[in-house]
Amino acid sequence: MKLVVFFAVVVAAVAQQPPRAVREQFRVIYEWRTIDFEWESPTVRETYLNTSRYIPQNVLISGINYYENNIFLTLPRMLDGVPATLAYIPANQNDTAPKLKPFPSWEDNTIGVCDALQFVQNIEIDRNGIMWILDNGRVGTLTQNPSTKCPPSIVLIDLKTGENKIERIPLSLDTVDLSKSYLNDLVIDNRDGDYAYITDNSAVDPGIIVFRLSDKKSWKLRDMKSMMSVPEATIFRINGTTVNLPVNIDGIALGPQFIADDGIIDRTVYYCPLSSFHLYAINASVLRNESLSEKGEGAIRPYVVDLGTKASQTDGMKMDSTGMLFFGLIGNSTIAEWNSTVDFRVGQRTIARDPNYIQWVDRFTFDDHGNLYVVVNRLYNFVKNQVSLEDVNYRILRSYTGLKSYVYGEDLMPPTPPQNAAATRTIAASVLVLALAHLFA
Ligand SMILES: *[C@@H]1O[C@H](CO)[C@@H](O)[C@H](O)[C@H]1NC(C)=O
Ligand SMILES: *[C@@H]1O[C@H](CO)[C@@H](O)[C@H](O)[C@H]1NC(C)=O
Ligand SMILES: *[C@@H]1O[C@H](CO)[C@@H](O)[C@H](O)[C@H]1NC(C)=O
Ligand SMILES: *[C@@H]1O[C@H](CO)[C@@H](O)[C@H](O)[C@H]1NC(C)=O
Ligand SMILES: *[C@@H]1O[C@H](CO)[C@@H](O)[C@H](O)[C@H]1NC(C)=O
Ligand SMILES: *[C@@H]1O[C@H](CO)[C@@H](O)[C@H](O)[C@H]1NC(C)=O
Ligand SMILES: CC(=O)N[C@H]1CO[C@H](CO)[C@@H](O)[C@@H]1O
C-alpha cells in the first residue's frame, strides 16, 4: 500500500500544561479523484451513467465510521447522480482507491422508496453495535429543486446480527420540517434509554434535536446566539478559492460522564456553527429536559457556555473516551486537538498542518485499535461546482493515537451516601493500594 507521510506541525507545549502525548503523523491511506462503486455488472454501471443516475463528479464523501474492519462512508445526495448514500470499504486493502459497496445493499439505497436510505449526512455506531443513521429524506439539497422524498428519520441497523435489517423511525413533525430541517451530525449517549443529540443546521431554524430511543420521542432546543453562523466567519479562503458559506450549527461532540454537584451523572455536549470561531458547551441534562423545548428560542441560553475561540472554522469534530477533542481548522489546513480538562483558550494544539493534503477536514472516526481517521473532501470545490476530475478530491488520513471513541467512555456510578466515614476511608485506602500495586506490577 502506498502510504504518504506528510509534514505535520507540532506546537511546543506551553509551560503550565501537562506534557502532550506523542502522536504519530497522519498518513494518507485512501485517496480518490472520483468515487466509484462495486456494481452488479459493467452493464448496470453503464446504464446508470447513460441515465445520469451516476454522475461521478457529484459523489462526495462526507461522514466516516468504523466497525469490525470496515470503514463506512456517507455520500449525501446534495446533487443528482449519487447512486448510493451510504457505503463501505474494507479498512485494510492494497487498492488505494477502493470501490465502494452500497450499505446495506443497492435496494436499500433506492431514491423515493421510504424503506430505503435517501440522504445520509452522518452516522454513528454506538457501543452496542447499533448504527444510527440520520436520513434527511430530501435529495438534491444543492440543486435548484430539492425534493422531499420521505420524512426525516432516524434509521437503525443492528450490526451485531449480520442481517443488516433497517428500522426506520420518522421524527415527529413537531420536531422537524420536511423542507427546512437538515439533520447534520449526531452523538449517541447510551444511558437511561439511549439518546441521540443531533445538530439541525437548518438555514432558518437551527437547533439541537434530542431523540430518545426508549420511547422514540424527540424534541428540539434552540439558541440563535450560539447556533447561528456569524457574518465575520462566513467567508473562507482555502487553497486559492474563496467561498461564502453561512452555515449554522454543525459539529457536535460528547464528553465523558461526570458526577455533578447534586450527585446526578451528566456529560458535556460540545457544538459549533460551521461559520463561527466559537466552541460552545452545554450539559446533556439540560438538553434532556423536554420542558425547555416548549419554552422556545433562548430557553437554554442561561445554560450555554462559550468556551472561547479557535483560529478558524470547524466542520466535524470527535471526542475520545477521556475528553480529548479532535477538530479541523478549515481555513488553516489544520487538524487540532484539545484536552478538555484544560481551558480551551490556552489548551488547543495543532497536530497536523498541510495545505496540499488537508483541504477541508470534514469528519473523524476512531477504530478499535487506537487509530484516528479523518475525511478530507475539498467541499469548497464541490459547493462551487469546481470539482476537477484530474485532481485527488477525497482522502482518508489515519494516525495512531492509542485512544478510543467517546462511545466507549467509562460508566460512573452515582455516589451512595457514606454509611460510616471510617469504612469509606478503608475502601479509599485499599483502592489506593490497588492502584499502586498496578503501577509497580
Ligand atoms: C450507453 O450509451 C451509449 C452511447 O449512447 C450506448 O452505445 C450504450 O449501448 C449505452 N449502454 C447501455 C447499457 O444502455
Ligand atoms: C496486500 O499485498 C500484500 C503483498 O502484495 C499481500 O501479502 C496482502 O495479502 C495484501 N493484502 C490485502 C488485504 O489484499
Ligand atoms: C455542567 O454542570 C456542572 C455541575 O452541575 C457545572 O459545574 C458545569 O459548569 C456545567 N457545564 C456547563 C457547560 O454548563
Ligand atoms: C427542566 O426545566 C425546567 C424549567 O423549564 C425546570 O423547572 C426543571 O427543574 C428542569 N428539570 C430538570 C430535571 O432539570
Ligand atoms: C486561519 O483561518 C482564519 C479563518 O479562516 C484566517 O482568517 C487566518 O488568516 C488563518 N490563519 C493562518 C495562519 O492561516
Ligand atoms: C488530559 O489532561 C489530563 C489532566 O492533565 C491528563 O491526565 C490526561 O492524560 C490528558 N489526556 C490525554 C489523552 O493526553
Ligand atoms: C493556491 C494554492 O494553494 N494552490 C494549491 C492547491 O492545491 C494543490 C494540490 O492539491 C496545489 O498543487 C496548489 O498549489
From TrEMBL:
<dbReference type="InterPro" id="IPR017996">
    <property type="entry name" value="MRJP/yellow-related"/>
</dbReference>
<dbReference type="InterPro" id="IPR011042">
    <property type="entry name" value="6-blade_b-propeller_TolB-like"/>
</dbReference>
<protein>
    <submittedName>
        <fullName>Yellow-x</fullName>
    </submittedName>
</protein>
<dbReference type="Pfam" id="PF03022">
    <property type="entry name" value="MRJP"/>
</dbReference>
<dbReference type="GO" id="GO:0005576">
    <property type="term" value="C:extracellular region"/>
</dbReference>
<keyword id="KW-0732">Signal</keyword>
<feature type="signal peptide">
    <location>
        <begin position="1"/>
        <end position="15"/>
    </location>
</feature>
<keyword id="KW-0964">Secreted</keyword>
<comment type="similarity">
    <text>Belongs to the major royal jelly protein family.</text>
</comment>
